[in-house]
């Protein structure tokens, strides 16, 4: 079993393509409709093809500035693990959470109905119509809670993919996203901008929810893209972060942000890191209202840009700051400046990591065949 | 001289690549800053390399639904011509408009300071620092006025490129756009979503004005894309069309339209005509307020979609409706349905044409060397 304890923002040494042959890959654009409550998509119940499986799902950066509530991407080397096994001691069709370890494990419920991984696993089991087998799940939190790095989505993604893999991976990416959305809607709202990239990897544009329509934006492999993630020791007041959002946006800001979102997507598809950073930095709608709630954030952004980052903004609802660059060493220097700015201007201790784009998404890292 | 009279929406048989070797091509993204009043960019005044030149600039479709005020594209086969010659009878450094013919020519002023082509030509002359040569301009309007097809931008683009070509084409695309913007700002507001594609061809995203930053979005050549343009005999009340715009946009609509603009750009770059149509059709901010001001517009959109179009919206501020498809013959059928709907539901006579994307932009069609 590949479970290992991870401290917050401590990158994982993980071979991303290992044991990852079975997850269905969606095409560039995929339309798929599901009712808000998953209903079984298989007419016959599948039998397990594995005895146990361990999966990993990456951290995600949602919003990326002007992509508020519809754009997110996955970040390599940070994430959560789920181990899942067929367990004769668990009632058929049911799920038991046997253990939770790692970050903030004491804060998480072992009741599957109150746990991100549990809710998502149960939703995937429902989609698969699992009635004859009981499952036991163990969650290893690599991500800190409430950091703006898609912690709940990573647990949900790892759990859904674990269930799917255990039964031969009949579910599509979109079905897995829908299972994960069951969890996300209970924890942080009905938003797919973390769960979709956590499952599918790369950059994902959420085009609509009814029906669920996701567009994977391929960032060219030849271009280098590094995320500098700087997480301060600060609890972003989630309710405040939502309440701070403007209810109405003036037409000039609407046009501006729309054009920047469009430019951001163009930059991703062209592999234009400078353009991506510029667009990411350009949000005039959400960032200006949220940044003041995170001590030092504007100074951190300034430090990142002055340090050579192509762009910087809040990751998700924060408090993590995300900057981008095309060079790992430069990324570390930028990270140091950002950590310093959090301390000097916000009075907050912070930790920085430099990570690549995760192009794979949630995946199997080890398994035991039947 | 290749000037020929064109009736409204009568496509031009034009060889687009003929005599078009000298216009500077901009890279994918180009940053360029100019003050609002063009100032000379050349230290020495260039001498004419041609005695006379005739240029063509295409019609343009601005907005494309959620790309309101920052996205536009050029449409092949419809546009304006400008003929320009060195004229010793014109005072050095000045411009004379010798003739205006074609659509609505009687409505247009021959005073260069009150004419789109004149203003743009003078701005280009200023950029080139022309003081020793007088020029004579003749404008051939192929586009109807106030149709939502970028009529003023086509005249301005053809004029700016004519001036540039006459002097050996030292100006860049961005400088030419800036010259055209001088005209647009006086006629229809400081917007580059018509003038930029009229000059540069293809799809253009206007990322910012200060500095002027344009992103050319290459639609893959292998994919077929046809525009069905249906222009009713109706004067869109420009002031009303602007006044109808909402001043404030609720957050859900802001997020929706931003995501559709982003999806539109992704579809363009991927050559995904269906995705492009879907995004183009999805505007919840501008179209719902403007469409009711054009009799029959919503029925026309419905007819287009029912006829198999991938999407349909208002071209620019209207009244032209634009639908897209991937097949010319299908485009003609869709056009017939749209014309019928304008008549049945709006009581308006309308004419339809089916045109391809213009990838070239304003260009020289004939010239006489010195």
From TrEMBL, chains A, B:
Pathway: Amino-acid biosynthesis; L-threonine biosynthesis; L-threonine from L-aspartate: step 4/5
One GO term describing the cellular component: chloroplast stroma
GO molecular function: ATP binding; homoserine kinase activity
Sorted UniProt keywords: Amino-acid biosynthesis, ATP-binding, Kinase, Nucleotide-binding, Threonine biosynthesis, Transferase
EC numbers: 2.7.1.39
One Pfam family this sequence matches: GHMP_kinases_N
Catalytic activities: L-homoserine + ATP = O-phospho-L-homoserine + ADP + H(+)
GO terms, biological process: photoperiodism, flowering; response to bacterium; response to fungus; threonine biosynthetic process
Domain GHMP kinase N-terminal: residue ranges: 125-202
GHMP kinase C-terminal domain segment(s): 265-342
Domain of life: Eukaryota
SUPFAM superfamilies assigned: GHMP Kinase, C-terminal domain (SSF55060), Ribosomal protein S5 domain 2-like (SSF54211)
PANTHER family linked to this entry: HOMOSERINE KINASE, HOMOSERINE/4-DIPHOSPHOCYTIDYL-2-C-METHYL-D-ERYTHRITOL KINASE
HAMAP family tied to this protein: Homoser_kinase
Family: Belongs to the GHMP kinase family. Homoserine kinase subfamily.
UniProt-recorded name of the protein: Homoserine kinase
Lineage of producing organism: Eukaryota, Viridiplantae, Streptophyta, Embryophyta, Tracheophyta
Gene: LOC110681864
